[in-house]
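Anyone else keep sequences and structure tokens together like this?

Example one:
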Amino acid sequence: MFRVLGPLEVLIDSRPIRLGGIKQRATLGFLLLKANQVVPTSQLLSALWPDKDPPASARKVLQNAVWSLRAALSVTKGTDMLRLSTQAPGYILQVDPAYVDLFRFHQLAERGRDEKAQPDRAAAILREALATWRGTALSDLVENGISWPELAAVENARLDTQQDWFDAELACGRHQSVLGELKAMVEAHPLRERACGQLMLALYRCGRHADALAVYSGLRTSLVEDLGLEPGPALQKLQHAILTHDPSLTLDPATVPAPARDVAVVRPPRPMPPIPAPRGPSDPRRAHLTLAMVRVRTCADATDPVRVDYELAAATRMVRSGIEELGGTVATSIGSATLAVFGRPPTRGGDEERAVRAALTLRDCFADGMGRGLVMQVAVATGETLVLTEPNSRLTVSGALVDRCHQMLSAVPEGTVWVCPRTRELIGDGFDALPAAEGAWEIRGVGGHDPERDSDLALIHGLLERALRRNSPHLVTVLGDSDDLLDRLTGLVNGPRVLDGRTVPDDPLSAAAELVTELCAVAPEDTPEVVRGRLRTTLGAGGPAESVVSALLPLLRPEHSAQPGTLAAWQLLLEQAARAQPLVVLLRDLHLAGDDLLDAVEELADLNAPLPLLVVAAARSALLKRRPSWGGGKPHAACITLDPPQSGTINRLRHLMASASIGGRCDGELPDQWRRPAPLTPPWDLGRPEPRLAALDVPPLTHGIRLTTPDSADTLCRAVFDDVADDELALASTVRLDGPCPPPR
């Protein structure tokens, strides 16, 4: 069964099959919309890249998508339901219309219209047609930016069918039962005259004559002001009939189908989910939370209140952006103070440490005033407080804990982080702390750790929180020497299961094999039958076919030859594990992995299924040389480069927060004094030699290696830009140039 009236699904024996990444799914979706027609390649390319010119590799991407679809749909072989073949000038998807919900919808809609002489029967058939919809057509593709004219045509067909159903229901005298759906349609599509007329008629028959005329008045105002048009003759005639109480608007009881005697009249099910009524705020409940209150002040001239207001508004946006990037939730902002919550219920532990790390990162970001004369203070408090969650609103916290945090903030010196005694007790000795006034503690930094690495760790942990909160897969790429960082991340994770694998030279699938071994608790001495049993247990009862288990065996037993579907089975295994328990997957030295494994890892970030999954891909910079577009364009992908202290994560977060201020725009132009031009030729800083040498896998400067020193600093910089040999770059890594860098040739 092929289902396009909602998220794209292919069901075999009532179970969905994997369809791959966004390009692959979009190819299948477009071919299904034009099923049994030859679709030119140029039209498919325009559909896959709707807002820009297709790249040079577009045809190859399309060919790979078609090839992958054929492999994914191969389970349908032996039936006559589908065939995807090449036919000039493109491709054709031949499918039995009985297996596509879109064709079934059109068929039922036509049957319902043919029965309009019998409104009760027509209403039943049209209701069945509308019940085939599960949401917006191809909603998973629409969420990823797909917008095709064909989808608009399908949506219009649904609206037309719904209006036919309204006509049939009104003819049966069920005007009260459809009144809610009619109002919803008119609100969503206010210029559909037919729907407005149906709503007017339903309101009139419900005795709401004034409301019926108000619908006409609202439509006429919109048409005249927006388009310069008057309502059509049919609607004008209906308005006149309502004004004169024309008897033709009243149903003749003899024409209304009567229910069978002695049978209870049951209200028919609605063809579309009803719009939920607004709910009141839920009851407040107490929860253990960590709060961070951040105040940013400006050194702007207080005699210019307009400039002060603009600068504070932009600074508040910057703080809000930084808090959300570091894993916190902004509860409220009042003036220049922002209240952030760490551990939004349900909490996962470690919230106080996460809040303190975020506070230190923000402190370092504002250490020099962001170049705009800004100073900040942060107060962190932990304890029980009242939590109120309102529909479509931010989390609201109140109580003594908020007051305590605010009182502490008033005493915090500028550029300092203070925490309450309870927070100090919970974070232990992992931070350098000094006693402050009134029992508070000043946090100087993270004890025994590089503050830059702490900021990187806070970013990754914040992305983990986002993956858990949004219940969606995320991919984080960490470039550089990351073993220590990942080891510390493993110690901080509380709740999700952590799987750790490393790629070794000459074995491009070793990382994937380690993950399966750890996940399934496979021992080296286990027999193949025992291994199969452990794989079946991990996949779960009623899990995938035995072919998936067979495809995974090459990862665990070298005597089994690899299969084309091995990595697809590996992905499925991770999906099943993440459904059972939130999952963090660490893949070390991924730059040594094969292309097939790299493709599989990238596809994990494209999964549309709700999965609490964070994939951390640790690699050297060689990964980007192999895959320049790695992770690019994906909505849930990020890349972190581990740089020397005070030059990496802090600067990236500063840039992100500065971007959040929208260049100083806040409902108007920011005064020119805010903007400071960037230097035209920033200093060239090659950083410390040790991380650079390790990241480039360059041997240390020892005897037996002869290096040629460039004649001047200018020549050295030009050589670095031109990607010189590794030995020259090793020497360049030991030099720091504080002058302007020459432009590349």
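And example two:
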Amino acid sequence: MFKKTTFAAALLAATVLSGAASAKTFVYCSEGSPEGFDPGLYTAGTTFDAAAHTVYNRLLEFKKGTTETEPGLAESYTISDDGLEYTFKLRPGVKYQTTEFFTPSRDFNADDVVFSFERQLKADNPWNKYVTGASWEYAAGMGFPEVIKSVEKVDDLTVKITLTRKEAPFLANIAMPFASIVSKEYADKLQADGKMNQMNQMPLGTGPFAFVAYQQDAIIRYKANPDYWGGKQKIDDLVFAITPDASVRYQKLKAGECHLMPFPNAADVAAMKADTNLKVMEQEGLNVAYLAYNTTQAPFDKAEVRKALNQAINKQAIVDAVFQGAATPATNPIPPTMWSYNKAVEDDKYDPEASKKALEAAGVSGLKMKVWAMPVSRPYMLNARRAAELIQSDFAKVGVEVEIVSYEWAEYLDKSKAKDRDGAVMLGWTGDNGDPDNFLDTLLGCDAVGGNNRAQWCNKEFDDLVTKAKETNDVAERTKLYEEAQVVFKKDAPWATIDHSLSVVPMRKNVEGFVQSPLGDFAFDGVDITE
């Protein structure tokens, strides 16, 4: 749980939308509350937007609107001939944010990079378990503790990372939110004061916006970092107005109470496009929604049962009802816009009669199960409750009784990781780096079981293929391996793949400089509000 900050809630509410007379305040109607403010501990886009894309930077960043990396806190890098050593030259003169809760005494340096990685990699690091019940889920799921042999300071502005094996997506991986660089000096002060949890409650980094205050489930406030190495932002104050209901977000947008919102109801998009006070951005989403069976629990431990259930789901009906057609039914665990997508894989055909017969043949009768429905809108699933109700109806037709369950978002994400979780959990993914590995290994690899791998599925044939693909830089060879992995996935069916959606971002007409991300990020550096 978050502790309330010392900032008065009344003052916070009074100043959110007004701001100082001469200051520009940008209000983002966000869809949910962050799990915390230390991006290394989490995997949800809601949390990344509230922390990684505001407060922090990484060694490399993704160029706006692309999946290409560019210099961030590292100005340049070199790679050894054997592909195992990466040496980063750090950007000089980078300042940490000065806040009411901490004043830094030095610039960013190599000590911060070493600390930021080692706290995630080393179990004996005092910061490795500083948040009770949390874990370095992303680093673990990608096998970083095994892949990274060492992170060494060469000098104040040089860091060398040595790998145990070749890792083709490594540079893209360290541009992701979980690899954000935190201040070792701030961490040392918190540890000395016995306030280590504050790292996850009151973040401090090198990014474009400095954290000011958080009123849980209501508002997050930031101010422009005047010392930002990329230049001070045009907006002075940034506010996340937490608004879980998409209809309420839309009303606030129309009323001018916020400048931009994520994940609108599909039924509202036409009206948004017709409103002369608004503008709407659209692009194909690099995403997938899925229903993950717990493959360690009977009867979902049998592939024939999972495939039979998949045949009972009318995915087109979900696309029509939830997305008004602004999505396509999903066949593979990666989107069709991603390289190495296997077009030859055939989807499980919607066929209730065949599903019923297959369940009977597998000895399954009178099955009662839970289907978990997310409490928040995500780009890949705008209304999980409605989708779950449609699945509930579909399963009833084949004799399977479904109970729909849900929890508050942070609790949902945490509980759904449990290895003994019952039923099937609805979730999805928007790619974090544009590499197939970010879907196939991150969500389905054996290292991710108990974390991002909500199906708890460890298939050696699949795992060997995606691991081998990471160990070569030959794109043609990687493509072949990933295509084979998709065949194994479809045969074993740890998920019911549901949809790939169109990403839609409505905003006020006077918003300038916002760049829609193929990775689903909502970042506000470079954004301005015109008169």
